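Need tokens for this chain, all 261 residues.
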Amino acid sequence: MQSPPLARFLHSLGKVQHHLHTAVVGLSAVEKRIATKPEDLDITWKAHDVVGSAREARRFLLRATLVYVAEELKEYATHMLKYRALADSSVTIPQNRVDRISALARPDEVNPSYLTVAPLIVSHWRNRIVHRNSGARLTATEHERLVTQSEAARDCYKGIDVAQLLEDFKNDQPTLKDVTVLLAMSLNFVRHIDSTLLQPANSIEVRQWLKAEELLDNVLKLEKEATNGGHPQPRARAMQYLLTKAPSLAEVYFAHGAGIP
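Here are the structure tokens for all 261 residues:
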């Protein structure tokens, strides 16, 4: 069972990848002078250097993708830590986006451990794009963790050259391979984190998940209205509501309820 935060993350990244690939295909047509501006497209566009313009646009697109993915990683980390905090009062949610990602797991809890570095690169890269004076970078330990496993990363991720990736990060010159590999690594990192979340097995745990999603009050209201109305399946209406708001919670809620006192 996917947690709602993972379901949202996967949905969002699927769209990001499709849009990125679509735009890259379009820009390749511009670079080859195959594409031209339609007459009915009401914009000003005149490139004296078509190849240079297409490549600059591609760099813009790749940097924008990194910013978008960094925001999705922040959202996932925030919600996952919120889930944990409801089950364990000692869990806190750091203010800094990078610290939130780091709080999800220690390197020795993730295999391979270099996966913990990828979302940090994405987040630091986002900060350097958004804040021009940012000096965001990996720690020496994080840098070493990725470099020492460069061969394993190369074998698993499209022959990625880790040294070149880090150089591109340093110089803010993302390549399509850099971005797609960082996306793939970040996705596998998130999947691993999600696999450590205990699935709700009773009504109290379902209640906690609904509370984390800020859906509990509405679910309880719908269930109470159905009960008062004599509905033979009081949870049915709330289940339909969850199918639109958090589909992965619908069945487990219907099976266990939400721990109504």
